[in-house]
């Protein structure tokens, strides 16, 4: 039975801390996730190439098998992406960022805003986007534990991500203002705070999009 059923507050495995307030909650959009994280467009190109190759080399039966296999793979990818959307909750408070994730295994990842070194905003199609974080020190979290809520192929030093969220610029602004109250942000950051651009540095070291 999922631990998610016992949440005192949706997306959190405990009560809010003293003085803590929720600023925003969201989740990945599965249609955007399947394109940006699971790369189904590349899968489609591969299936098309293999279908043509199978038709030329072995005939229509082989091509049909490739097409059916491709649809099965697409169905599995879609089911996984929908599962990620249904089970994930990103919660931004005035003190921390909490990732409630896990299709098969329930996990809560608590990231204090004071530990954010950099954050990079990447816009995607349809007013969706990703926010990639770099944390101070050596974060004790594995890539396998975070994926797909981590930057692809960063196995050694995984970067947690808010993936495929709606209106990411607004979320980045909220994160910027909340973080600036907990750690020093360069004066130049204010110039970029309304644009969603990357801001450097935070605490003299990193970047935070706003």
Annotation keywords:
three-stranded antiparallel sheet, four-stranded antiparallel sheet, disordered C terminus, alpha+beta, single chain, 7 strands, 210 residues, 35% helix
List the helices and strands and how they pair.
Layout: E1 22-26, H1 30-36, H2 40-57, H3 60-87, E2 89-93, E3 96-101, E4 107-112, E5 116-123, E6 128-135, H4 143-146, E7 161-166, H5 168-180, H6 189-192
Antiparallel strand pairs: 1-2, 2-3, 3-4, 5-6, 6-7
Helix pairs in contact: 1-3, 2-3
Q: Low-confidence runs (pLDDT<50, min 5 residues)?
A: 187-210
Total strands: 7
Sum up the overall morphology in one term: elongated
Q: Which series of helices and strands comes N to C? A: EHHHEEEEEHEHH
Summed up, the helix count is 6
Which oligomeric state applies?
single chain
For the report, how would you describe the main beta sheet?
4 strands, antiparallel
Rg, Cα atoms, Å: 20 Å
Question: What percentage of the residues does DSSP assign to strands (E)?
Answer: 15-25%
Helix and strand content put the structural class at: alpha+beta
Q: For the terminal residues, how far apart are their CA atoms?
A: 38 Å
Proportion of residues in helical segments: 25-40%
Mean pLDDT: 84
Numbering strands along the chain, what is their spatial order in the largest sheet?
Answer: 1-2-3-4
């Amino acid at each position: 039975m999922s631990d998610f059923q016992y949440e005192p507050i949706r997306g959190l495995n405990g009560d809010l801390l003293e003085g803590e307030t929720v600023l925003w909650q969201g989740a990945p959009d599965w249609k955007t996730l399947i394109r940006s994280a699971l790369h189904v467009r590349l899968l489609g190109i591969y299936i098309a190439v293999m279908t043509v190759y199978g038709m030329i080399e072995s005939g229509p039966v082989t091509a049909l098998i490739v097409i059916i296999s491709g649809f099965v793979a697409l169905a599995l990818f879609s089911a996984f992406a929908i599962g990620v959307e249904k089970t994930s909750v990103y919660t931004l408070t005035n003190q921390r960022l909490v990732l409630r994730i896990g299709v098969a295994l329930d996990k809560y990842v608590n990231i204090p805003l004071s530990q954010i070194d950099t954050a990079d905003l990447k816009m995607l199609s349809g007013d969706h986007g990703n926010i990639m974080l770099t944390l101070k020190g050596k974060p004790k979290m594995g890539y396998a534990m975070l994926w797909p809520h981590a930057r692809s192929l960063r196995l050694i030093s995984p970067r947690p991500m808010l993936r495929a969220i709606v209106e990411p610029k607004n979320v980045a602004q909220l994160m910027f203002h909340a973080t600036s109250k907990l750690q020093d942000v360069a004066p130049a950051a204010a110039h970029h705070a309304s644009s969603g651009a990357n801001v450097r540095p935070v605490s003299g070291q990193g970047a935070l999009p706003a």
